[in-house]
Write a structure and sequence with these properties.
It is built from 12 helices and 12 strands. It is of the alpha/beta class. The chain folds into 2 domains: 1-32, no CATH class; 35-205 and 284-446, Alkaline Phosphatase, subunit A (3-Layer(aba) Sandwich). A hairpin with a 2-residue loop joins strand 7 and strand 8.
Amino acid sequence: MKTTTRRAFLRGVGGAALALPWLESIAVAASVKPIAQRMAHFYVPIGVVRRGFFPGEAEHVIPKGNLGDVMKSLGEQDPDFGVSKLTELTPTIQPLQGVKDKITLITGMDRTFQQGTDVHAQCASCFLSSAPPNTIQGSAWPLDRTLDHIVADHVGTTTPFSTLEFSCNSHRDNKESIYFDNISWYGTGHLAPSIRDPRKMYQRLFSTSEIDRHRDITSLVLEDANSLKKELGYSDQQKFAEYFDSLRAIETQMDRLEKMKTELSLVDFDEPAEAYLPRGQYIRLMGDLMVVSLQTGLTNVATFMVGPERWDTPYQFEGLFDKPRSHHQMSHNQTKTIEDLLKVDHFHMEQYAYLVNKMDQIKESDGTSLLDNTLFTYGSGLGDGSTHQYNDLPIIMAGGGQRVKSGLHINMPEGTPLANLWLTQARLMGLGMKRFADSTGTIEPLVP
């Protein structure tokens, strides 16, 4: 069998193979590094309509999560927990039918909530941090360094981007604060800003002018910093050293990206047009950019936010409604809009299913798929959008290959922290963590 280096292979086929299944007639040389493990999170705002998403709740007028609260107040334990084969999919999850054996539905988990602040503000911002309430000083909610950055500290040290943050909020009006519109945080109060414009994300990933611009800025700052260092006292020099190291890290990141640009310039992915895109096309285009960034090694960790929390500006959901609608406003009038809300939930699941299928069709050099090597999680910070319950969240995990058990419905005991899943994922990504935030253990049925 013919062998070739990755660089020569890319040149020989004009780069198109990056968007095709692995070609068995061409074997990459054994010197190619092992297949990277990746992690991505697909966040849906404002929860879901429970009767459309959760098995066994189709006839529930009161969401089951609220019924669980009633049972707890009476001293009764919810008996419905355990592990079963994922057989029939509920209407909202139906778009995943074709990959049913590669997903796992995980129910019964609760997110951390800190009393005294808005529910929606904590939904997205705290989704991937789950710090115990009132443990983070100087914060109105339990927002700490999020899982994506903790994992990236371990698996993102050699990629051009340690993490990438994608958002599908196309609105430019500042209806809410940054806490309603971001799930990725370097730490308390330190936002990892997401990119909402497909063209800007494309240019960040593939444009050489982006490298030159960053390099020019970094060089100027480093030059000024060196001059300033001579004038500082010992204590300030220690603080300055940390600042200087962070600038060097940016320069190193640019070096990694520059080394990949020759190959990335051959990727068969056209620059997005500067024009209005229907909602579904917009989400899928941003999703395509996320997939190609994971596929080509630009990053191993990504977050993908479908929309913001409590943002009343309406979207034109083409194909669903004849006029723009506000997801948040519909959720507060569920008795009259439930059928429309179910359409929105199904629409969002279609976008997730599209990306799951796309990852599953991309072959890696060892014959596995991109999905096999990615933990790709769908979730929301509310268990029910109308009642704002933050327990019994809608969570689906796809991918993971032989590292996880798939095709299951895992219904965890009532009160299981969402952080248990994040701890499990961190360990699956190679971190030897004993605890994450308010976790009490791992999701044992998920791991072989």
